[in-house]
Amino acid sequence: MASERDEPERLTAEEARAVEAVLVRLNERAWGLAFGLLCGLGLFVATAILVIRGGSQVGPHLALLGIYLRGYEVTWTGAIVGLGYGLVLGYIAGWAVGAVYNRLVRIG
């Protein structure tokens, strides 16, 4: 026979909604940090690979980012600059994704 201790405690409807609201919510700073690191390191690694490969024209397509990211070029210095831009812009994008998601969950 099963005793009362073996059965899980049931939540009320109000408690279940409160738990769901906390668990469904995204941490905006964490998403920003994750996106920022992903974008920054991605741009740094892509630039570093092209610089290491070398050649007569190093990364002409990636060099076009210099139009939008002032100071970026396909060099080691540009890799550091790209890392900084990726961190900042990625953080903003990740934070925005988390913020919009949280607003939509709150509405629904």
Architecture blueprint of SSEs:
Elements: H1 13-24, H2 28-53, H3 60-63, H4 76-107
Helix pairs in contact: 2-4
Shape: elongated
The main pleated sheet reads as:
none
* Arithmetic mean pLDDT: 89
List low-confidence stretches: none
* Radius of gyration from CA coordinates: 23 Å
**By helix and strand content, what is the structural category?**
mainly alpha
Could you state the order of secondary-structure elements as H and E?
HHHH
Straight-line N-to-C gap:
43 Å
What is the strand tally? 0
Number of helices: 4
The helix content, as a percent range, equals 55-70%
How much of the sequence lies in strands comes to under 5%
Notes on the protein architecture:
- The chain has helices at residues 13-24, 28-53, 60-63, 76-107.
- With 108 residues, the chain is mostly helical.
- The radius of gyration is 23 Å and the shape is elongated.
Concise overview:
The protein is mainly α.
List key phrases describing it.
mainly alpha, 69% helix
